[in-house]
TrEMBL record:
Protein name per UniProt: Leptin receptor gene-related protein
Source superkingdom: Eukaryota
PANTHER family: LEPTIN RECEPTOR GENE-RELATED PROTEIN (PTHR12050:SF3), LEPTIN RECEPTOR-RELATED (PTHR12050)
Transmembrane stretches, start-end: 6-25, 32-51, 71-89, 101-121
InterPro entries to which the protein is assigned, alphabetical: Vps55/LEPROT (IPR007262)
Assigned GO CC terms: endosome membrane; Golgi membrane
Gene that this polypeptide is encoded by: Leprot
Similarity section: Belongs to the OB-RGRP/VPS55 family.
Subcellular location: Endosome membrane; Golgi apparatus membrane
Organism: Sylvia atricapilla (blackcap)
Membrane topology, from the record: Multi-pass membrane protein
Amino acid sequence: PCAVAALVALSFSGAIGLTFLMLGCALEYYGVYWPLFVLIFYFICPIPHFIARRVGDDSDAASSACRELAYFFTTGIVVSAFGFPIILARVEAIKWGACGLVLAGNAVIFLTILGFFLVFGRGDDFSWEQW
C-alpha cells in the first residue's frame, strides 16, 4: 500500500512537470517546440546511476570512484537540462516566459526522478529493479 501510494504520487508529480514543459511549448503566445529537447536529458539522467550500480562493487565503503563518477555525470546532465532553455531564451529562440515554464518543469521532473530512486532504490524486497 505504501509503495502504491508513492508510485501514484510520483506519477502525479511527473505529470505536473510534463504539463509545465508542454505549456512552455504549446501555448499560442510561445508556439515554439525547441524546449522539448529537454526530454532527452530526462531520459539520460538515470543512466549513469544504472551503470554505476551494475558495474560498482557492493561493498559497504562510504564512497566508490564509480559511484562518484556517476554522480558527476548525473550532475552535468541536470545542469545542462537547466542551462539549455536559458540559452534558448538568451539567443531569442524561445521567449523568457516559456523558459520559466520549462525550468519549473525541470525542477519538478528531476525531483520526481530523485524521489523515485529514494523510494524504490533501497534494495529491499520491493525495489525499482522489479519495474
